[in-house]
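Please go through this chain and its backbone structure tokens and walk me through the local backbone shapes. Keep your notes short.
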Amino acid sequence: MNENIRIFLDCYIEDPDPQYGVLIDGAWGCGKTFFVQSWLKGLANDESCVMKPIEVSLFGLNQVSQINDAINRVLFPVLDNKYYKIAKSVVGTVSKAVLKCNVDINQDGKNDGTLDIQLDPLMSLFNSQEHINKEWFFVFDDIERCNIDMKSLFGYINDFVERRQFHVIIICNSNEISQKDKPVFAKFKEKVIGRSFVVQPDVSAAVDSFLHKVPSNDFTLSNAKVIEKVFWATGFNNLRVMRQAIRDCNKILEGLDIDSHNDYQCMGYRNFLIRYIVITMELAKGNESLLHGLCLGPVLEKTLSEQELKDISILRSKYDNLGKEYKLNVLDTRHIDILIRNIKKGESLD
């Protein structure tokens, strides 16, 4: 399904005058941003494509002017470059939208000259010739995590689509739009969004990407398929949590001399890998009390409610197939508490 979205986005970018935006929707952690980043990477490697993205995360932004600032840093990187020190004074012989910057080329703390900068590249982009501004398109992420008034935000984005006629891609988790803003969001979708897609977790691609990021580990690399199966067994489609579990596991296994020809040793570390990911995912789902309930034993289990016992039973049976395939008790009570303490508090596994 995600491949169909990719094909559509390729066609959307090639459309010279779409007059609508595209919504990429999905739950937090499902891989929406990862999917779009992967598509953008492919676009950058396509020599026939002249379109360039301006990516803006709206996470925590409070004012529309902050969006302008973020766009300007993409259009004019010098505004966000540590090699330049922006002077406090604004000089304006022709326009007040000019800054005089001190240039420190060799980073020795001394001024190597000055540079006048147009403060609002975005307005220059808007006012440029059509063949220039159509080289750019906009990707707005984290709408549901934005603190800007939704009417103002959607009006701002609508201006890019309808009046400015730019290509616009919006990434969000629509289920997390607040109840008071849902009517505004619905009207925005009806007016501005031409196509909406829900991204499904691309576990194979995500795991491959996670495993090759630092810290990487040959042992976890060799168990990529196992990790995929663990992910699906948890029933928790959050790739962000999976990424953290893999990174933490790699740190623990870093420096260990694992003999790939020693089947018994490899099986032991594989079992650890499976349990570590499972416990990490279950904790992220908010199931810590159920995990502790598994460790109570038959006597203390009698103190639990009927619903708690039912939930514990469901949790225990959820990993039966995984356990049968790899010949282990995934939720072995001897390992649960120590793994929880390591994951939550950083305590040693020794």
Notes: Strands lie at 21-25, 52-57, 84-90, 98-103, 114-118, 136-141, 168-172, 193-198.
